[in-house]
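Friendly challenge for the regulars: who can give me the structure tokens for this chain first? No prize, just bragging rights.
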Amino acid sequence: MSVYVMLTTLTSEGRRTLKEKPERIKEVNQEVEKMGAKILQQYAVLGPYDFVNILDAPSNEVISKVAVELGSRGTIQTMTLPAVPISDFIQAVKR
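First reply, four minutes later:
Bragging rights claimed.
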């Protein structure tokens, strides 16, 4: 499994949905797990992004599916980044 950082920004529609039904976040988390990824950590943040999500997924294809599916709903925009553990990064640099 690989770790990914997904930065999300709410659209106007997403802000309306969140205001009307804040628990929708937990429902989406369950949907993400049904797509094959697992949310390890999730934070609401201030700044250019609204949420930082740390996910575990078996492949780039699975996380791509998650990003496309969530983005296609029109409630969020995503930026997904693969995360490399520091020890793996150091070993790669040494090679």
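The chain is about 45% helix and 35% strand. The chain has a mean pLDDT of 97. Your move, everyone else.
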